[in-house]
Amino acid sequence: MSEGPVVNERIAQRRAEVRAERRRRRLRRTVLVASTLVVLLGLAVLERSSLVALADVEVTGLERLDEAAVLEVAGVAEGMSVLRIRLGAVEERLEALPLVEAATAERVGPLGLRIDVVEAAPALTARFPTASVLVSEQGLVLGEGEAPGTPVADVRGRAPEPGDTVAASGTLAAAHAVVLALPGPVLALVDHVTVRAPDDVRLVLFDGVEVRWGDASRGDEKARALGAVLEDLDGRVVQLIDVRAPMAPTVTP
Question: What predicted TM-score, i.e. pTM, was given to this entire model?
Answer without folding.
Answer: 0.65
